[in-house]
Amino acid sequence: MRFRETEGCACLFCGGNDRVQVVARDDGAAAFAVCSACREKIIAAWSSGALPETAEQAEQAKQVYGDGTKRVMAEAAAMTEEQFEEKYLSDMVDRVIFEYVRGYGQTDLSGGAMGLLSIMTEEGSEVVAAHIDGLAAKGLIYSVAGKPGWYGADYPFADD
Fold it and tell me: What is the pTM of this model?
């Protein structure tokens, strides 16, 4: 692997820009940018055995979607984004939360994000938390394995 300091680039993992380095693998895989804080977390996780070292371990660690999420994802693939919103996101709070999570792919909804979502929806954190739970129960967002408070939404629509 080759590491190169860079400026004007955001971290692939957190979006931060503190001492970002571009990491280029020797096998020709796509390069990626990582900040100092995420590098430290990755090194600590690797040292503790939390990161997979083989392809088999990586396959086992992949996100496992629940049945509801699989069903909604399959249905969404045949729908336009507008059709999806009409069917599943008629509630404004649900729509804001879904779009927020979908924008990040996977994100932490506790702490600062909860405050931001409360401001965006003009609802209290209890109401936002109830909507998050409801969206997860319906399979519209999913809990990220091994990351408490994190949710994801990976939706390719027919019009993408």
Answer: 0.60
